[in-house]
Amino acid sequence: MSRPFKRFLLLPLFVCLLASVGAQTTGNAGTPAAVSEPAAAGTTAADAQAQQGTSETSDTSDNGAAAGEQQTDTNIDSQSPAAPNTAENPAEESDGAGAVSASDGTPSDEIAPDTPGSPGTDNTVNEKHNSNGNVQGNAVNKDHSKNGHIPENGAETEASFDEGEADAALQKNRLQGQDLSVRNSLERSLITHRFEGGVAAIADSSVTRSFFAAGKDGFITRFSYRTMKPETWQVSTMPIKRIAAHPKKALIAVYETDGFSIHKISLWDWQTKKQLYAKRFTSSVLSLSWSAQGTYLFIGTASTEGITVLDANGNVKKVYPRPPGIVLLAATGPSEKSIVTYGETGRLVYADIAKKSILTQYETEDRLENPELIKNYTQIIGYKNGNVVVVKAASGEVLENYPARSALFAGKITDSLPVWIEKGESGRTWYLCQGDKKSPAFSLPHPADITAARHVDAAVVIGTDDGRLYRLTQNKDAEVLLTELNIDVSIPIRDICTKDSKIYMLSGSTLYVSTSSADKPEPVIQSVLGDRCTVYGNGFLFWSAEKNAPLYYAEEGQTPVVLYRPRERLNSVSVYNDTIAAVRAFSGLVLLDGKSGKQLFTYQAAGLQDAVQVDDTFVLITKSTGGVIRQPILLINIKTGETMPLNMDGDIAFSVQGNNKVANTFSCFRLKTEKSEQTDLMTMKLDTAYPARSSFAAALSYSDEDLQASLYDDGYAVLTTLGKNQLTYYDKRRRSSRQLPRDYALPRKALMTETYIVSVNYDGSLSWFNRRTMQLLQYKTFTEN
């Protein structure tokens, strides 16, 4: 049973300092909680081991042979402009040398926007990227009271500078010298963002007097300690699972994964919002941390290698004569002479970094969940069998067990006791715990599960599975007070389409229209049930690509009516005259009469992606290569049922689009995985009389998988999100490409009119560009008002 809390009088200076940080709370306002002082300084466990005698010495050098062969220059880069594909028939050309497959868990060089990537070593693989990383054309962080407060950390709280002024100066400096559109984008990043899918991780950055929060939507927000002003940037289209803030600089390491085959570690310079490097791993990442001074980045994986150590440039550094096993925690002392790792088998391994030798090993409690370091690197904490376990890092001795129903650790390296969030008895209540002390139960204003927590400055910050962030402080009675940090009232735009040079935006259950970036969007159709919209005749089709829902039709001012009821969700919907082509997720293609909804033609097959009707006779279909027909693109005669595979290789084709300006010309994406993963933007010219004579060309290529890529083809140019970064504009006639400036959020889908390029972004915001100059004009979000 936990001890009752007693009143603790804070120092007047501390009260005055924190008063300026006071914010609105649920219930009543009170004095903020105090924060733990740093543990007594001294030799850390890792440094102590470095002074012992040596044992096993490795002869392995830092730099092994490069595992990847030299690649061709036909890949996507993330910061430099794309170049055109000047080859007459790129589809017929062979790819560059295939990358050698890595051993399980070792990374491969991926993208380095501003720093050229160095060759992979120690079984790393050089992926097919150039030195910058964008789409390229194929020619591109002791004194305890006896109450429930978390004691004060005076050293961190009594800052000797005005943090608000420091933030302003930092922002001003980083904006100076930037291109106008880039500066505008950085200024717009100063926004509040609620993380779709939930908060995944929180990392403290005491050196910058701020902390970072990352979400499953690929966004990261930095909050200043004093002002709590947010700064948001999307770093990935995939979920972020772990982050680690550099101990000395404004750098943030990120682990993003699709949960299956893609596991990527990237390093970002937060001041410039530039990716410095990225590494691909073949197995999941179980831990991510920096050495004490930030010289090395430690990546613990579920592979037999156990851990990968990267230096400041992202190069792999050999440390162990043999793999230490699966690593759940890695750290150094301030001298960074030795490294200690904790594995799931309960083994503590100390190694000399310079000598690449094992210093000593200890056996301790095994299978600790979510292990972390506290007390200046001298103690390891973890959760096991209903207890928070404290282990002495220098020997493996179990020092303490604290009973806990659950434990979501929220500590930092200077804490003398473990700090965690614990679930209450009801499931709707929570406790803030420190050692054997527990706060009164508290609940969230918006019921949700707490998914991340971190001791930040004079408080604890938590994140939830509904994407909210709260700052937890305690009043004089030790009651927990909550302040929501990321109140977001925006309503995301789900989809966009264009008709008669107007932009139509689907948000919530309403379709809006706007003719320019300066216009206020006006509602034209309400009561929409769907997440996708497509122009058809004088009206619009509404449907869902996320769940089984009817296909609706409505004209402006009308209420949508059901046109077709599929038994499954729809992958895609396209229109040709009065015929609607709908690709069902599992049972294939159906052609519908646009007036009555009657089925005109069906083609049952698995793996279909999209379909576009070419003319009165033919339908063009993209698919995966499974089944009898191996080609990823087919031409089907709807009069005879004849199926004609077209001569385009690849494992899967998707997002095929036609246009109403240039007959029989289409665009789609193709994924190839034979030698290495590569996604190509393909342009094609169909010959319906002699299908074998149809031609295909790879206009742009990205040396990775990008199944979320989208495109818009107006006949003369293709606009695409290929490359998971900026929009790329590809001029078909000139065979040239140009990248548009990116906003704080990455583009999800875009389209063009004669005057504008409009992008709906991953957070549901809208970006307007001038089509002629390619400059970013306007950024908009919808709100309840």
From TrEMBL:
> Biased-composition ranges for Polar residues?
55-80
Task: Give the Low complexity compositional bias ranges.
Answer: 29-54
Organism superkingdom: Bacteria
Keyword list (alphabetical) reads:
Signal
InterPro entries assigned: Haem_d1_sf, Quinoprotein_ADH-like_sf, WD40/YVTN_repeat-like_dom_sf
Instruction: Give yes or no: UniProt keyword Isomerase.
Output: no
Gene3D superfamilies documented for this protein: YVTN repeat-like/Quinoprotein amine dehydrogenase
What is the residue range of the signal peptide feature?
A: 1-25
* Start and end residues of each stretch annotated as Disordered: 28-165
Does the UniProt entry include the keyword Cell cycle? no
Protein name, entry field: WD40 repeat domain-containing protein
Species, as recorded: Treponema vincentii F0403
